Amino acid sequence: MSACSQTAAAWSRCLVVFSELRRAGLRPDLASFQCLARACGHGGHWRGALQILVAMREQRIVDSGDVVRSAVAWACEASVEPMSRNVTTARGARKEQKEDALLDFLRQNAATGDLDGAIAAFERFVRECQWLKVAGGQKARLLENSVHPGDRVVEFGTYMGYSALVVARRLRALGGGGRVISCEVDANAAEIARAVILWAGAQHEIDVRIGCAFDWIASGQLGLIDLLVLDHRGERYHTDLQAVEHQLSCRARIFADNVLHPGAPLFLAYIKDRFHTRIHEVKEFLHTPPIDDWVVICTPLSGQRSTQQPLPPEMRRWSAKVDAICQGSQQRTVDWHGFQQDFKRAMYDWNPPGIFAASPRHRSDSGRRS
């Protein structure tokens, strides 16, 4: 069903498979309903997607992670019918404690419509109240320097909208113009981000869209892209970049966060010899204890977009290790620093020294040599 749910041409096949499962007496799980909702979205069948939520309620199936609601929300937003854009789905029962607290803090400590004040309050919340994984500090400066006047920016991974606000502020400083489309797979997070952006007064410059990157790429509704910001799941960076390459403008830049923490080894393998690459070694913003991360900024090499090389088994193994420690971190405390030393050494060996923005001595001190 997953494969059938990813294109407009195959969406009806997904419905057939779902019906066959029901006739066979199999009880659909959340993943099945999610695929069905995505299939409806690709087929423009947004009313059918809404009926999925009704069917789940009737069968007393709890959408504990709101994954189905998020997929249904995408199906409605991606529809070409104007009426579907006004359809809302009730927010799930899952409580976003830190994220809701951020929105309350923002409203108490920044004036409405004050973009600079909202960004400052955002950073103050992370510093004084609760840590959130946002691209502040060194990362924010690198992101601002990547923005050009009038850029058409697409971001995969909105979270709370911090990076989108930073980009909007930079576009204003460069004279206005441009726009930001930011895609967030989690409907709850997207709705909080929209409220944050509205409070900051940047709602006319930033369009937050619910849904996964791949689905929005397949919809053909992202338009031409000057700056692509990758800040969602590192294991998806290379596949989503490959899918969207035909929509990159002749002056396109790619800004990829979290390439070392938690890590995106397949992305590093994919861009090697196909993109002009610069790796910036930074600290995770206000993380305690301090931990390293990499920001990758790259541009396509002329004539290289259509070529594709097999991804090395070594990098696939590292991708599996990154995925395993990420999964483990949701259930227990993991040794990120210990893992990162081995991971970093392997990534140093994979990448030529000349693509690092740091000096050779700094790289050596960071763990390249034991």
Task: Please tell me about this protein's structure.
- Its EC number is 2.1.1.6.
- InterPro entries: SAM-dependent_MTases_sf, SAM_O-MeTrfase, TPR-like_helical_dom_sf.
- GO terms for molecular function: catechol O-methyltransferase activity.
- With 370 residues, the chain is α/β, with parallel strands linked by helices.
- It has 2 domains: 3-86, no CATH class; 132-368, Rossmann fold (3-Layer(aba) Sandwich), CATH 3.40.50.150.
- Helix content is 49%, strand content 13%.
- It has helices at 11-23, 30-42, 46-58, 67-78, 97-109, 115-128, 138-146, 162-173, 187-200, 213-219, 237-244, 259-263, 265-271, 313-329, 336-350, 360-368, and strands spanning 152-156, 179-184, 206-210, 225-230, 248-256, 275-283, 292-300.
- It has a 7-stranded mixed β-sheet.
- α8 (162-173) links the parallel β1 (152-156) and β2.
- α6 (115-128) packs antiparallel against α8 and α10 (213-219) packs parallel to α11 (237-244).
- The protein is globular and about 60 Å long.
- The relative contact order is 0.09.
Keywords:
Rossmann fold, TPR-like_helical_dom_sf, alpha/beta, disordered C terminus, SAM-dependent_MTases_sf, EC 2.1.1.6, methyltransferase, 7-stranded mixed β-sheet, 7 strands, 16 helices, 370 residues
Protein topology:
Elements: H1 11-23, H2 30-42, H3 46-58, H4 67-78, H5 97-109, H6 115-128, H7 138-146, E1 152-156, H8 162-173, E2 179-184, H9 187-200, E3 206-210, H10 213-219, E4 225-230, H11 237-244, E5 248-256, H12 259-263, H13 265-271, E6 275-283, E7 292-300, H14 313-329, H15 336-350, H16 360-368
Parallel strand pairs: 1-2, 1-4, 2-3, 4-5
Antiparallel strand pairs: 5-7, 6-7
Helix pairs in contact: 1-2, 2-3, 2-4, 3-4, 5-6, 5-9, 6-8, 10-11, 15-16
